[in-house]
Structure formats: C-alpha cells, structure tokens
Amino acid sequence: MKKYTLNPKEALILDNQIEKQLSSYRSRKNKKHKCMYKGCNKSAVNSHTISKKISLTSISENGHLKQFKSKRDYQKQNGKSLSNDTVGLNDATTFKGFCQNHEDLFKNLDNNTTRSSLEEILLQSYRSVCFSLFNTKSTDIYFGNNNIIDNSLTVNKLKELLELDKEQIEISDNKLMELYNEINKNQFHGFDIESKLLESYKSSLEDYINSYNFNAFEIGDEYNFCEENCQIGVLYKKLNNQIPVALLNHHLLKIGEQYTLLLITVIPYVDSTEIYWIFDKNFYKHLSKRWNTITDKLINILNMLESSMMLCENWYVKPAIINDMPKERLEIIEEDIYFINERDLFADYDLSIFDNLRLIFIENEINIDSVSEMNKINKIVQRKDYNYRLNEFNNQISDIFPLKN
Ligand SMILES: [Zn+2]
Predict the structure, then answer these.
(1) Residues with CB under 5 A from ligand 1 (ion)
(2) Is residue 374 part of a domain?
(3) Which of 73, 221, 247, 325 falls between 20 and 30 A from 295, CA-CA?
(4) Is the predicted pLDDT of residue 159 greater than 70, yes or no?
(5) What is the pLDDT of residue 79?
(6) CA 364 to chain centre
(7) Spatial CA neighbour of 118 closest among 126, 133, 40, 280
(8) Would you give the DSSP letter of residue 28?
(9) Neighbour tally for 322: CB within 10 Å
C-alpha cells in the first residue's frame, strides 16, 4: 500500500475536515434525518439504542459514562490517538433513528428488564442493526456511493464537501485525490461492505417482525432464534450478574471465503446483563458452536466482550472501570485499541478490563486457566515500538477491510 504523500500536518487537517463532516452528520442537532422505519417519512428524533432509564443509568456515575474516542494528536505519526472520554447519558447509544411514533415500538424494552416475547428480542436486534447502519452509512450518504473509486468525484467537489479553503491547506489537486483515495479505500470501502450487509439485516428483520404473530411468553435466560422465514439468526442470553458496559459493536468476520457481519449487543441492568449476537442465519451453525463454548462459562463471556471492546468502539462503560485501572495498563490499552490488526474477536485480549468481575468469575469456576487470567491483571506486558506497529497496521489494514477487485 502507498504511504500518505502529504506531510503529517496536512494529512491531519484533511482528516480533521472529514471527521468534522461526519460528526455534524451524526450530530443530535442534525434535523435532516428521516425515520429509519420502512416507508416512514417523518423526522427522526434522538433515539437511545439502549434504554437510558433502566439500563444506562444503572452503570452511570453522576449521569456519566466513559467511552474511547478518537482524538487528533500531532505527536502521533498517524495523527490520531484513542483516549477515554466522559459522555452524558443523553448522548450514549443515541442516534437519529426513528420518529416519535416508531419509538413507541420499543416501549417494553425501555420499561422492563425481562423479555416477555420473541418480538422484544427481535425489536432489540432491529434497533441494534439500525444503530450500526446509521453509523456506517453516514460516509456513504455524505460522499456518495463509491464516487471516489469510480473517479467521478472531482477535486473541486471534494474540496467543497470538505469545506477546504486555500488558507487552511496548501495542497495540490493530485495530492488531495491521492490521499483521499487512500482514506476511502481503507475506511470507506469497509463501511460500504458493512452498510450493505446491515441494510439486508434490517429489511429482513423488519419483514419478519411485521408478518409474524407473536405470542407473549416469558423468555428464559437463553433463547436461540433461527427460523426459516427470517434471514437473521439471534442468540440471546441473560446473566444474573451486571457486566457494567453498554455495548453496540459489529464485527466484520471472514468465515470460510465469505465476509459477514456479527453484531454484539450488551445491555446491563442493576443486577443482570443481556447479551445478543445478531448475524446472517447462513452462519448459524458456525456461530452457534462458538456461542455455546463461550457462554458455557462466565469468564469466557467476559473475555469475548473485552475482545469485542478492543476491536470496535461503540461501547460505554461505568466510569470506575477506567478510573480505577492502573495507569500503565490504561496507557497500553489506549494504544492497543488502535491496532485492530493485531487481534482476533475470538482470541483473548491479554489485559484485563473488568478486574473485579474477573476475580469473582475465576474463583467460582473450575477447569479454567486461572494463571493466564491473573496474568491479565498482574503481568507487565511489553509491546513493540509504536512506529513498527503503525507500519504493520498500514500494511495489513486492507485485509481487514477487503478492497474491491
Ligand atoms: Zn417513523
């Protein structure tokens, strides 16, 4: 892969402009969004994907949660660093999802911690899919569908979109297009694959929820959904412990020769936690096997969630989890989280995020490797030099976001 040919400062300015556009698109103040529900044309309000009242509040401190945020950083060669940030309850998990009428669909989810029908499980899955779609689709909408790859976007149009002016950046047209192509190929094409998959998950769930007559029945602690008439499979489990993270991640997986998307949703309550896996039913056999191994032990569930957190940043955690973490470990995590090329969703991360739960879980379980679990808390780890890692990242990123032929 070619390296950026702009100097770091120029690259950073351009990158900042792109980020600025994206965040104003996603902003809670943007009134242009329509309801995502099929056929509805009303304006979207700010929707929580995870209930503020019965879930987010249960892990908040003084109305706040913590998340990791990408920050501009001139010191870093890539111009970015990830660090932890405080976020208010009104912003956590919020997106411009649905109109006020369609928000009512989720009323039960926002009032009860117990699922009383399959419909509720599917509605939460639907809401999670829409959240991910909203966040991946914004690049698509803003910059047009693969305009760059098709070379139909002109330099002038690009400058206009990015609100670049001459005083801000001295950049030749060729350089600008070259840089933008790099960013687009890496990041936006990845988003493009993801948003197409999410689009199909969304419409499949919508069709099923609309056509099926659901009966109310108490969903137990586990539920596996895999039906002939729905393209989506859902695996659901409720734990009797609180894992203090609200998580709405999605992961692009390569299974065999095919790319597919696994969504992981975690909803914490005062004394319990719901976990959802939402995916293409074609991969049910493969993923349910993994799910069974993981959900067999609480420590394995914790490990899976920590791995997910280190690969995708759509999560909000109880502030104490970050605030009480040893400083040295937090620094390593803040650097590691950028290098997604180094880890695998189904392999354990070698540092602990939830120390207290880890200690409780390993004490209560037999047949686990408690030495390696304790090492995640106590052992001093060594990482390779930052620039070496960045170089590896740049070389490998196209494997994570496969390019078009
Ligand atoms: Zn609507």
Answers:
(1) 35, 37, 40, 42, 99, 102
(2) yes
(3) 325
(4) no
(5) 56
(6) 30
(7) 126
(8) T
(9) 19
Edge-to-edge strands, sheet with 315-317: 80-88, 64-72, 315-317, 245-255, 258-268, 273-280, 232-239, 222-225
Domain of 91, in residue numbers: 8-400
355 inside domain: yes
pLDDT of residue 204: 96
The answer for residues whose C-beta is within 8 angstroms of residue 157's C-beta and 6 or more apart is: none
Helix boundaries (H) for 246-326:
284-295, 298-309, 319-323
* Å from CA of 315 to ligand 1 middle: 26
Query: At residue 403, does pLDDT exceed 50?
Result: no
CA of 43 to the centre of ligand 1 (A): 7
pLDDT tens profile 368-389 = 888 999 999 999 899 999 889 9
The two tokens of residue 289 are 């096997």
Instruction: Check residue 257 and give its pLDDT.
Output: 85
Tell me the average pLDDT across 178-204.
76
Whether the CB-CB separation of 222 and 236 falls below 8 Å is answered with yes
**Residue 203 Cα to ligand 1 middle (Å):** 15
The CA distance from 225 to 234, in Å, is: 5
Asked if residue 2 is part of any domain, the answer here is no
257-303 residue pLDDT tens: 888 999 999 999 999 999 999 999 999 999 999 999 999 999 999 99
321 within some domain:
yes
Is 14 in contact with 6 (CB distance < 8 Å)? Answer: yes
Please say if the pLDDT value at position 189 is more than 90: no
| Residue 215, token pair as written in the block | 């009966």
Task: List C-alpha distances in Å: 233 to 279, 282, 302, 341.
Answer: 5, 8, 22, 27
How far apart (Å, rounded) are the C-alpha atoms in residues 104 and 110?
10
